[in-house]
Design goal:
single chain; mainly alpha; Arc Repressor Mutant, subunit A; Rossmann fold; 5 domains; five-stranded parallel beta sheet; three-stranded antiparallel beta sheet; 45 helices; 14 strands; 65% helix; 6% strand; globular
């Protein structure tokens, strides 16, 4: 939403594309005062003080009414309320209030680990500024509000720069930082950031010059030497500290952490010295005893130089956790091995030579943990579990009991405030005693007090006393958690309880407000869910998980599931309530990603509509990426509830997301569940679609025989209208296997069959045109994708055309086509097609006699292919690098690239690629012989 009222610069009201400045001056002051309290009543006295200051005229109230009347002709929504006025606009319509909200949201996102998203939020927030805050507004109002806004602006800018530096964007922020230190020469943090940005950009001498300039300014202006932050930046530059960033993955430490000094000392004393054997510690105790909070707090105080890894285990398999851990240690997404043994070996190799701390939270058994223990010298592991895991070799365990009375009261004080506890110390001790010293129970009780400022501690203590039969169970293992959660559950409003227990039907660790709205729906009409989610978050039962997402502890989810079973019955009834919404959202996103697929009804042909389609395609890909974890869990939930029709359809709808993002593990898991559901439901069409999806995955991973088998099985189940689509895919498999005659037969057969299917026709024209090297067929396919409004298909054919005309030595045409494909892919945010276009441009550069340019572009493409696990793209990029290296007389580099490419082509079963690689190898051997 764009702000309509502008205060971050000269005051203005945005009317369409024009900014209108209300006048005269006192009218602007009055409007600014109302805008700064948008949606809230402002008393007449406060408005009079804002307009006239400490000495208003006797007629001030009467004149104020005249000013209000005049403003109403310019601004809608000014209401008279008892004692004052209210401007009924949303806070986000006021740029200053929108700026404050966005900065707060960015900080929460940053604290949750979303550095890139936080940087983008801050960048968007800072973009709202057009000049000095409240520029042109005179008097106390500007002095009181402009200075904090300007200070927040500087802080936000420095925070965004810090995030950019953390993301390796130092070279991009140097100009911005030079302007900042010029405007604010005494801000040491800005000088330190400028030094680090210069150093990151490889300009070390300029970074040291910046330090001298900063020091001179501080000494001359303040008579002070630089502070610790600036000195630390100077030391880093002097040391040429170019080490890569290390992972720091633990969740944020809780602000009110209390006690546990003995176990914290035990952990600190166990840290291994460099070169010593790794140490593995287990923190165990009942649910709600604060194991996770303790592990996170302890991790923050340990100094292991190569970072901290964090994994929440719950019921996850070791293989799934290892996939996350090796990625955190720098393994590209697509390079993660498929088997558990291979992942274990890679993990141990990556931690060898590093001193890392690994926090493994909520382990259920020794078997779940063994493969995750780092074996490198000097490493350390902190495991939390309900059991001591005595079978875990070489591990030491520490039992966690409840908090001591003094620690429990201190924790309560941290949640509700020292003043309220000091006013009723005996009642604070009583609450701590009734909660049994259990941290989770204390946190829930404290949150009830924090949310209700009118409650006394005695009132809450009396409530807890009435439940003494249930609260007695707080000291008894799992029942302690259940009764603690019951305290928070009973304190909720009706709709909050409904939502919490219905969320128990889902196994996803996080979710967005739209699913809450569906769960709260009445008579098929969704209700606003964000307010209820926020209330549950305030109650401590949910947590914010980045921008517009919420999550919860698994124990809370289990309790919610129990409440659901007791109060409403089976989870399947709740899943039936939301399955339609889940499917509809996934289907719509799929339709936007695949315009004019049969059943979508989307065909956007005109230029403006194609531009809109491109924007929507990019948005749908981003939405599905954000919802990926939830959607994968939803397939499992629907399958487990035997809602087979919904399960297989959702698995099918999600396929394009997994294909574009190279999420192969999720793709295979959901497709297999969907296939099982389709079989269980006796739905041949569903089985055929899921077999086709699995075949696409097998083909992408080079398992061509498996792909062919799946497609042949699908053909026996495929409905008449879908036979050609399956046959087309079978032709692609034959093409990859080198059986060109069978591939051409399939493509030609499909072309004849797709008469009434424009998307099928475009796909077949492209496949046949690429196989035959037919420019005419490819251009017909290109026109088909354009008429469909499918920029992804258009970009793909443009690359095929570029490769074809490049082979005919029509270099300019090849470059034009590849650059158009590159532009489309960038607008869509599709990294793999973007890399493919860059690779074609590298081959164009080779044909133009520019091997150095070609090698650079091919290496950039190679990095993307490796990150996304695209073996075929990687092999093609390596061939281009090899050819460029030969032209540059770098024969050894060429030989290495050829060897790697041949390995990829062999794994993929790509005979044509192997032939090209062997031809280059022959030339490399000849060059070596001439040396």
């Amino acid at each position: 939403m764009s702000a309509r009222f502008l205060l971050l610069g000269p005051l203005a009201v945005r009317d369409g594309e024009r900014d209108v400045t209300p006048g005269p001056a006192k009218h602007r002051v009055l409007l600014a005062a109302l805008l700064l309290h948008a949606g809230h009543a402002v008393t007449v006295d406060r408005l009079v003080a804002a307009v006239w200051g400490e000495e208003p005229p006797a007629s001030a109230e009467a004149v104020l009414r005249v000013y209000v009347s005049a403003l109403r002709k310019v601004v809608e929504g000014i209401r008279t309320v008892p004692g004052g006025y209210l401007l009924a606009v949303e806070p986000d319509e006021v740029d200053a209030l929108r700026f404050e909200r966005m900065v707060a949201s960015a900080r929460r996102t940053r604290d949750a680990g979303g550095a890139q998203d936080a940087a983008e939020l801050l960048r968007e927030a800072l973009g709202l500024w057009r000049g000095p805050a409240l520029d042109g507004i005179e008097g106390e109002l500007r002095r009181a509000r402009a200075v904090p806004l300007e200070e927040l602006r500087l802080a936000a800018l420095e925070e965004r720069v810090a995030l950019d530096l953390g993301l390796g964007r130092g070279g991009e922020v140097i100009g911005e930082l030079r302007a900042l230190v010029a405007a604010h020469p005494l801000r040491e943090r800005a000088w330190a950031q400028l030094m680090l940005a210069l150093h990151q950009a490889g300009r070390r001498s300029e970074a040291l010059e910046a330090y001298q300039a900063a020091r001179g300014t501080l000494v001359d202006e303040l008579g002070l030497e630089p502070g610790p932050e600036l000195r630390e930046a100077h030391d880093r530059v002097l040391a040429e500290d170019d080490r890569p960033s290390v992972p720091h993955e633990t969740p944020p430490d809780v602000a009110d952490f209390t006690g546990r000094k003995a176990v914290l000392g035990w952990i600190a004393a166990a840290v291994p010295a460099p070169g010593a054997a790794p140490v593995h510690l287990v923190l165990y105790g009942p649910a709600g005893s604060g194991k996770t909070a303790l592990a996170v707090h302890a991790a923050g105080g340990l100094d292991l130089p190569d970072g901290t890894l964090y994994a929440s285990l719950r019921d996850r398999t070791p293989g799934a956790v290892l996939e996350d851990l090796v990625r955190s240690l720098g393994c590209p997404d697509g390079a993660v091995p498929t088997t558990l043994d291979e992942r274990v070996r890679l993990y141990r190799s990556l931690v060898a030579g590093r001193r890392v701390l690994v926090v493994l939270d909520d382990a259920t058994s020794e078997a779940q943990v063994r493969a995750l223990l780092p074996t490198g010298a000097g490493c350390m592991t902190l495991v939390t579990s309900r059991s001591p895991l005595f079978g875990l070799e070489a591990a030491r365990a520490y039992p966690l009991d409840v908090l001591e009375p003094g620690e429990a009261v201190a924790m309560l004080e941290g949640i509700v405030g020292a003043g309220r506890v000091a006013a009723e110390p005996e009642q604070a001790r009583r609450i701590a005693r009734l909660c049994g010293g259990l941290p989770l129970a204390l946190r829930i009780a404290g949150s009830r007090l924090a949310r209700r400022g009118g409650w006394t501690l005695e009132y809450l203590a009396d409530l807890l006393g009435d439940e003494r039969g249930r609260l007695d169970e707080l000291s008894a293992g799992d029942l302690a958690v259940r009764s603690s959660l019951a305290l928070g559950y009973r304190a909720l409003a009706d709709d909050e309880r409904v939502l919490l227990r219905r969320l128990g039907a889902l196994t996803s660790p996080d979710f967005a407000p739209w699913i809450a709205a569906a769960l709260l729906s009445r008579d098929g009409e969704p209700r606003e869910g964000r307010r209820v989610l926020d209330a549950l978050t305030e109650a401590g039962l949910l947590q914010e998980r980045g921008l517009d997402r919420y999550g919860w502890h698994d124990l809370t989810r289990l309790y919610a599931a129990e409440r659901l079973a007791e109060e409403e019955g089976a989870a399947s009834a709740v899943l039936a309530r939301v399955a339609g919404e889940i499917l509809d959202r996934a289907r719509r996103a799929r339709e936007l990603m695949l315009p004019a697929e049969p059943g979508s009804g989307l065909t956007l042909a005109r230029t403006a509509e194609r531009d809109l389609a491109t924007t929507r395609l990019a948005e749908s890909a981003r939405w599905l990426a954000a919802e990926r974890t939830f959607m994968v869990a939803a397939v499992t939930d629907l399958h487990r509830a035997r809602m087979d029709e919904a399960a297989w359809r959702l698995a099918f709808y999600l396929t394009p997301l997994f294909e574009l993002g190279a999420y192969h593990d999720d793709w295979r898991a959901t497709a297999l569940l969907g296939l099982e559901s389709a079989r269980r439901a006796g739905h041949p069409h569903g089985q055929a679609l899921l077999l086709r999806s699995l075949a696409d995955l097998d083909r992408a991973e080079g398992r061509l025989e498996e792909a062919a088998d799946a497609l042949r099985a699908a053909l026996s189940l495929t409905e008449q209208g879908e036979v050609a689509r399956t046959t087309l895919r079978l032709g692609l498999v034959y093409r990859a296997q080198g059986d060109l005659a069978e591939a051409e037969r399939c493509f030609a057969e499909c072309l004849a069959a797709f008469g009434a299917d424009p998307r099928g026709m475009a796909d077949a024209l492209r496949a046949l045109g690429e196989l035959r090297g037919s420019e005419e067929l490819l251009r017909r396919g290109l026109e088909g994708y354009r008429e469909l409004g499918d920029p992804r298909g258009e970009a793909a054919v443009l690359l095929d055309l570029a490769a074809l005309v490049l082979g005919l030595r029509r270099t300019k045409e090849a470059r034009d086509a590849a650059e158009r494909a590159l532009g489309l892919s960038r607008r869509l945010g599709d990294r793999l097609p973007e890399a493919a276009a860059a690779l074609v441009l590298a081959n164009v550069a080779m044909s133009e006699g520019r091997p150095d340019t070609a090698a650079t572009a091919a290496r950039d493409a190679l990095a993307v292919f490796e990150t996304h696990g695209d073996g075929r793209g990687r092999a093609r990029a390596l061939l281009t690098i090899a050819a460029a290296s030969l032209d540059l007389d770098e024969v050894d580099e060429a030989v290495d690239a050829i060897a790697s490419a041949m390995g990829e082509f062999d794994a993929l079963g790509d005979r044509r690629g192997l032939t090209e690689a062997e031809e280059l190898a022959t030339e490399a051997r000849r060059r070596r012989g001439l040396r």
